[in-house]
Amino acid sequence: MKLLLIHPKFPYRGKDLFPLGLSYLAAIAKKKGEVRVVDENIGEIDENFVREFSPELIGISCTTPSFSRGLEIMNKLRVWVNRARIFFGGTHVTFKTEEAINAGADFVIRGEGEATLEEILEKKPLNRISGISYKSDDKIVHNPDRGLIKNLDAIPSPAYELFPIHNYGIMSVITSRGCPYSCIYCSASRFWGNKVRFHSVDRVHKELITVKKLGFKKIRFMDSIFNLNKERTLEICEIIKDMGFIWSCEVRADLFDEEIAKAMSESGCFLICVGVDSASQRVLDACNRKMRVEDIKNAFKIAKKFDIRTRAYVTFGFPGENEKSVVETIKFLKEVKPDKILLSLATAYPGTKLEESGRFIEMHPSWVAKFHGHGYGARLYLPEGMSKREYIRLADLMYKEIKKLNRSIHSERYLWGRGN
Fold first, then answer.
1. With left for phi above 0 and alpha for psi between -120 and 50, is residue 373 left, alpha or beta?
2. Are 201 and 239 in contact, with CB atoms under 8 Å apart?
3. Residue 9 is part of a domain; what is its CATH number?
4. Which of 302, 315, 374, 400 is deepest in the core (most CB within 10 A)?
């Protein structure tokens, strides 16, 4: 079977981010037939290419920000290759399945996609494939959920050779799937599972060797929490130490200690991304972060001690937000001095507790666009008891103060500059 996999362009990300999820699906597909991939962050999909390849099956992988572009692509494909079946996969359609099917998708892969795609390519009847939804007799049918893949090492390594690999400045690598926490603004634990599954350290080592052979010097680990398991984190640092990479990752502040920081720094880690969200303990508790402000502060101190740069993710508008919490957060940021601060607006993404709240606010896109991520395709959350006028005033206050702080510290180029 001839399969075309498409990664729609992302509204606010550059072309440096390798589409890791699509590369795993491509690795499954190439064992079953002929497969091509298109990453629109490198170049938009081309009609002549699609017509010439003439795929029988087309998969479009979408997050919420890229879903609208995914629909645009689907409508074009219906004209270019009208006999092809088109399906969607990814986080957005896992939680908004009917939206994709009612828009014209032939079916949707829900959740983790590798095993499901393999059965589709084996041409099993749709009604016998777990983890998909489709329309039958004008009714949407949701087959039973598919269980998660227990052994991640059973998944083939990414099909790097199917991508224009040298167009990516940084290679994405993932060593685990899942998150044991259930923050109200995140769907990771629902999509990947609360029980974290790990690749073996040996498998991670082999993938890093491949990445090095491809010529990459910069790596971004995409794990939800890179330092979740201390012993394993130290093992990975040991194997990567002499490979010559510079790398970044996301860490959980209360699990980040001096032993881990030392090992990470010595193995080439130059940047950690820290989820601050808010410096109000009340707001953190309302978000179910299970995190103390003091632990977040300590993570920044440890990073500075071991010469690891820091990027702070801060969010305005979570439950309990008010002027006091905004002032607390600004004061905190001035004290810990992250190397880069990214400010987002609390966004009710599909599959999150925030979405279930039903408390949303409509803002003009031109105002929203100045914030990181800008909530493309999802609704903004409005804290209880806060008026729209107060929302704008406090968000603007935080934006202006963080903009000043970012001007006084290092640029994004500086963050990626180590080792150049």
1. left
2. yes
3. 3.40.50.280
4. 315
